[in-house]
Amino acid sequence: MRLNTELLVSDAIHFRVDYEINPYMHTETQPDQATAVAEHEAIVAAHRAAGRRVAHLPSAPECPDMVFPANAALVRGNRAVLGDLPPERKAERPYFQEWLIGHGFDIIEAPFPFSGQGDALAIGDVVLAGYGQRTDRRMHDVLAQELGYQVVPLRTVSPCWYDLDLAVAVIDSQTLAYCPDALDEPSRRRLRELGMHLIEVSVAEAARVALNLISDGDTVTMSRGAPRLAATLRARGLRVVELTTTELAKGGGGVRCTALTLDDTPAGGTL
């Protein structure tokens, strides 16, 4: 079964840096809007070229980070646990909630801080669940109870990895790419114990949002600037599409951040 074939995106029309909530954001370094829009449109075009279905929710003027829907929720089957984001991003929540309800999803409120899919990477019945930065570890029990996941807790060690999807990437049902230095030792051990093939990525490439990618198991869509990871993935027979995300990176995001996956395997399903 392919992964990440149904995605929800927004757009970069209102993207700007109004505040600093991760180490990559600097209000004195504003993205070029036209270039950011072009980068985002290229990402969406790459998804469609790979055969992925893409739904669009227009961004709102008061939501400069709405271009990054991955943080809005974690979706499984017809249920969605909403993200509980930093105060600066609270205005996004009603737009995503309304869209999800309008498209038939049952909504679960997050009782603790939760960075949505940014800190929750699903692989069948398993979810790699980040904590240590934006997500309260108590959310792991919520994801297990409400969505039926087997939770693998992974602690990132620095604000540089403010979301897990900057430190770990799901390539296919048996393959992960990760930056060992971004995780503490118990987390690295948990990854090894999964018995999956692990691709190690350097801090230098991970810091260029290399792991903030989307893979459907056949095609990997990722940011430029990580030639070693791209070469490793191609050597494994994957089609790799490298895209420029220079302006989007000024908000701390890459390809993965710009889409919310809607087709994670329902409870009891198989990959």
Characterise this structure.
The protein is α/β, with parallel strands linked by helices. Helix content is 21%, strand content 23%. It contains six helices and 15 strands. The protein has helices spanning 33-49, 93-102, 139-147, 185-193, 203-206, 227-235; strands spanning 6-9, 53-56, 73-76, 79-82, 106-108, 120-123, 126-131, 150-155, 168-172, 175-178, 197-200, 214-215, 219-223, 239-243, 260-261. The chain has a three-stranded mixed sheet, covered by helices on one side. Strands 3-4-5 form a three-stranded mixed sheet, with helices on both faces. Strand 13, helix 6 (227-235) and strand 14 (239-243) form a beta-alpha-beta unit. The radius of gyration is 17 Å and the shape is globular. The N and C termini lie close together (5 Å).
Mean pLDDT across every amino acid position:
96
How many H/I helical runs?
A: 6
H-E order: EHEEEHEEEHEEEHEHEEHEE
Straight-line N-to-C gap: 5 Å
Q: Reading side by side through the largest sheet, how are the strands ordered?
A: 2-1-15
From the alpha carbons, calculate the radius of gyration and give it in angstroms.
17 Å
**Uncertain residue ranges:** none
Oligomerization state of this entry? single chain
Largest sheet: 3 strands, mixed
The computed structural class is alpha/beta
Helicity level, as a percent range? 10-25%
Our estimate of the beta-strand percent is 15-25%
**Shape assignment:** globular
| Number of strand elements | 15
Give the key terms.
271 residues, alpha/beta, three-stranded mixed sheet, 6 helices, globular
Summary of the model, kept short:
The chain is of the alpha/beta class. The protein has helices spanning 33-49, 93-102, 139-147, 185-193, 203-206, 227-235, and strands at residues 6-9, 53-56, 73-76, 79-82, 106-108, 120-123, 126-131, 150-155, 168-172, 175-178, 197-200, 214-215, 219-223, 239-243, 260-261. Strand 1 (6-9), helix 1 (33-49) and strand 2 form a beta-alpha-beta unit.
